[in-house]
Amino acid sequence: MSLDHAQLRALYQTHGPMVLRRAQRILGDPAEAEEALQEVFVRAFRGADGFDGRASVSTWLYRITTHWCLNRLRDRRRRQVIWDEKIAPAEERASASADHLEAVALRRVLAEADEREARAAMCVLIDGMSHEEAAEVLGVSRRTVGNLVDRFTAFARKRLGAHMNHAATRHRGGA
Q1: Which class does domain 90-175 fall in?
Q2: What value does the mean pLDDT take over residues 140-168?
């Protein structure tokens, strides 16, 4: 599939809101989601020849969006900017909402997790897709989705437990 500018504009108008919602869900930042929206359509334009039509256009854009956003989270983690941007200083942390802290913790775990497991978890646990729907989006079997989500859940429990223990130690004046 090759796209000219008019076709890209139509694709953007049709699927842009879905891409933006997906990016906001993953990134949690409207400004970053806007950047993701632009980048996803640039990548779609450049990679249109790689679209073979086996999946729907929305599924293809969904995959591009998820991949770009998860990579963005990983980049943040590598530079440790996530702590500077998302977590308030210690005195503010105590009064921060539980929802905000949970969202930060989830994004951190997604950034650290295996990419395939994180994608499956996003589909099933965050987007509420069935395993069959996630299998179609991810291009794997329903059973594989279940295995990936199970592995992600175990990883998340382990990481969140370690994170909570570390936070409690810091709060008590330890490390």
Answers
A1: mainly alpha
A2: 80
